TrEMBL record:
<protein>
    <submittedName>
        <fullName>Glycosyl transferase</fullName>
    </submittedName>
</protein>
<dbReference type="GO" id="GO:0016740">
    <property type="term" value="F:transferase activity"/>
</dbReference>
<dbReference type="InterPro" id="IPR002201">
    <property type="entry name" value="Glyco_trans_9"/>
</dbReference>
<dbReference type="Pfam" id="PF01075">
    <property type="entry name" value="Glyco_transf_9"/>
</dbReference>
<keyword id="KW-0328">Glycosyltransferase</keyword>
<dbReference type="InterPro" id="IPR051199">
    <property type="entry name" value="LPS_LOS_Heptosyltrfase"/>
</dbReference>
<keyword id="KW-0808">Transferase</keyword>
């Protein structure tokens, strides 16, 4: 029999991209349970962005409650916990706190079979669905077996991004502001830095176009040491490590486009409706079938078939499949964005 909920806790404590791709499920839960309250449990670094999502009523940072999960749940009025990511401690705490509905994927971990009473069963590795679609499997206990098509996913994103004056001051002098998030913190197969350099050099021929390099402080240092020619171009600014995640979100929102491989800011950019281009290898599990940028103005580039030996090795930073995505192919996308903005301004 389908369940109903009044207050749902969704747990997703991993990387920002994974969290972003969980949010469409929250929007659907609002449709299935009118008036429901949704709390998202995540890591502190991701909380800033989640608070911009209109479908999330409250955000709880795991660091603030991890030493007293049972106490937190007992003090709350939460009646449903969705383990959107395996979490042994939370599964046990939900059971001990007497949470009425405990939803988890029983195919992932044996403890979810034991402690979850509203079990779903699916394999991410065997699925042909995108990560954002796969998360809708957790809604089966509500009687909802519909998995939205990819072109439906953008309609489930609802954000209110505040305007940031500091970002405006940086972006204002330039006619078109393009963000390159060149690194992935090891979470995606990267487009070679030489290709980003060739792209930035070609963009020097485009009047008014300025390139912004974003990333962590460590990634900014890597760029200074390993890509001095890119960092030194007159049309390029390295702002890695200078922004909080909240400010980076506003910066992306107020810019004109973002290019990256499979990393959190790529999915963030696509979700908030920015022009976004994702660069991917064709090999599972890194392929765009699972991790493509999905948004109202998002697109992706990828070879039709794997073209290099050992492409599936997860420890590779880049590969020939990524090198085969030419700067010229990316330039054509950017030129289309520039023309689109110019047409809108006429």
């Amino acid at each position: 029999m389908p369940i109903t909920s009044k207050h749902i806790l969704i747990s997703r404590q991993d990387n920002i991209g994974d969290v972003i791709l969980t949010l469409p499920m929250a929007a659907r839960l609002k449709q299935l349970n009118p008036g429901v309250r949704i709390t998202l449990l995540c890591r502190a670094y991701a909380a800033e962005v989640v608070r911009y999502c209109n479908d999330i009523d409250d955000v709880v940072e795991i660091e603030s409650i991890e030493n007293d999960l049972v106490g937190y749940l007992k003090r709350s009025d939460i009646d449903t916990v969705i383990l959107a990511q395996p979490d042994r401690a939370l599964a046990i705490a939900s059971f001990r706190a007497g949470i009425r509905h405990r939803i988890g994927n029983a195919r992932q971990k044996i403890y979810q079979l034991i402690y979850c009473n509203r079990r779903v069963r699916f394999s991410k590795g065997l699925s042909e669905h995108h990560e954002s679609q796969i998360n809708f499997e957790f809604l089966r206990p509500y009687g909802d077996k519909h998995i939205p098509e990819r072109n439906e996913i953008p309609s489930f994103y609802h954000f209110s991004i505040p305007h940031d004056e500091a970002s405006s001051a940086l972006l204002a002098p330039h006619a078109f502001n393009l963000i390159l998030h060149t690194k992935s913190n090891g979470h995606g197969r990267e487009w070679p830095i030489e290709s980003y350099l060739a792209l930035a050099q070609e963009l020097r021929r485009q009047p008014g176009v300025h390139v912004w390099l974003t990333g962590s402080p460590k990634e900014g240092e890597w760029l200074r040491e390993n890509a001095p020619e890119l960092v030194g171009l007159p049309n390029v600014s390295n702002v890695c490590g200078t922004q909080t995640l909240a400010r980076l979100t506003s910066f992306i929102h107020q810019a004109d486009g973002l290019i990256a491989s499979g990393t959190g800011p790529l999915h963030l950019s696509a979700a908030i409706g920015q022009r976004t281009l994702g660069l991917f290898p064709p090999t599972r599990p890194m392929h765009p079938g699972r991790w493509a940028a999905i948004g109202k103005r998002a697109s992706n580039l990828c070879l039709a078939e794997a073209g290099c030996v050992g492409c599936s090795a997860r420890d590779k930073i880049t590969c020939d499949c990524m090198r085969a995505i030419t700067p010229q192919a990316v330039i054509e996308v950017v030129r289309g964005w520039i023309e689109e903005k110019q047409a809108a301004g006429r």
